[in-house]
Amino acid sequence: VQLQASGGGLVQAGGSLTLSCAVSGRTVANYATGWFRQAPGREREFVAAIRPGGRTYYADSVKGRFTISRDNARDTVSLQMDSLKPEDTADYFCALDATFRSSVHDSNYYSDRRTYHYWGQGTMVTVSS
């Protein structure tokens, strides 16, 4: 299983970026996928997740600004980031749960990085003020 994240870059505050995570070795529609981020000197934190059935979860800090979506035909998961702020600056990682069609309803499950067995490399997002 491999995850390939892309789309990071430098953007001014208020701007937008779209990150993409290409998954190989799994049919992404059958597994929860999450985005996490890690700023320098800080812990890796949850950003957003999408369940096999399509339900989505967001960290409070990005709710209303970020949108996670999935393209089942291409086995990719995207993160549309709007109204970016300097505090969004971080290395962004996509991750895949190993549980086939997880039916867990607890949102804490999807925001916990221990849920995810497979991780892509990070893609850096820098938001200038």
Distinctive features:
single chain; 129 residues; 4-stranded antiparallel beta sheet; 1 helix
How does the SSE layout of this entry go?
Layout: E1 2-6, E2 9-12, E3 17-24, E4 33-38, E5 45-50, E6 56-58, E7 66-71, E8 76-81, E9 90-97, H1 107-111, E10 116-119, E11 123-128
General description of the model:
- The chain has 1 helix and 11 strands.
- Strands 2, 4, 5, 6, 9, 10 and 11 form a 7-stranded mixed β-sheet that branches.
- A hairpin with a 5-residue loop joins strand 5 and strand 6.
- The protein starts with a strand and ends with a strand.
- The model has no long low-confidence stretch (mean pLDDT 97).
The N- and C-terminal alpha carbons lie at a distance of 37 Å
Written as H for each helix and E for each strand, in order along the chain, the element string is EEEEEEEEEHEE
- Give the count of helical stretches: 1
Number-wise, the strands total: 11
- Which class best fits the helix and strand makeup? mainly beta
Main beta-sheet annotation: 7 strands, mixed
Q: What average pLDDT do the residues reach? A: 97
Percent of residues in helices: under 10%
The rounded Rg comes to: 14 Å
Instruction: Flag low-confidence runs.
Output: none
Strand content is: over 45%
Shape: globular
Short description:
This protein is mainly beta. Helices cover 4% and strands 48% of the residues.
